[in-house]
């Protein structure tokens, strides 16, 4: 994550002062430039897809709970730690099921900048 990425994303998708200018963000609850939560979410998705979350059929969301306990900053290096919480086979569709996946996006200090508990639709292996 760097300042130019934060500014470019904010200009296109979330043009609020605390995402567009460090000076404007100084007097907000963020106390300085903060990445949009949606930017953090997009990076999290990229990390999930490219780092080996191996779900047959891809990562297909059907809902979830998302929170940003602290802001992502320009100097942050992000990584994601995920845990499968639940696997539920579909009763009516034997070719699929649901997975509940908890993903913590952390910065280089280990601080959680995003928490996402996703409900995912997954294909089931044929026996």
TrEMBL record:
Q: A single Pfam family, by name?
A: MaoC_dehydratas
Looking up Gene3D superfamilies in the UniProt record yields:
Hotdog Thioesterase
The organism's place on the tree of life at top rank: Bacteria
Please list the residue ranges annotated as the MaoC-like domain: 2-54
UniProt cross-references to InterPro entries, sorted A to Z: HotDog_dom_sf, MaoC-like_dom, MCH/BMMD
* Coiled-coil regions listed in the entry: none
What protein does this entry describe?
Acyl dehydratase
Could you tell me which species this protein originates from?
Answer: Collimonas arenae
């Amino acid at each position: 994550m760097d300042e130019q990425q934060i500014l470019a994303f904010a200009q296109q998708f979330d043009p609020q002062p605390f995402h567009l200018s460090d000076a404007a963000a100084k007097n907000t609850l963020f106390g300085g430039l903060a990445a949009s939560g949606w930017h953090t979410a997009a990076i999290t998705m990229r990390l999930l897809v490219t780092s080996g979350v191996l779900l047959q059929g891809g990562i297909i969301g059907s809902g979830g709970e998302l929170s940003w306990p602290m802001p992502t900053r320009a100097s942050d290096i992000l990584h994601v730690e995920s845990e499968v919480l639940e696997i539920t086979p579909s009763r009516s569709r034997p070719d699929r099921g649901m997975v509940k996946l908890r993903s913590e996006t952390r910065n280089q200090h280990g601080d959680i900048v995003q928490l996402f508990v996703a409900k995912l639709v997954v294909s089931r292996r044929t026996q």
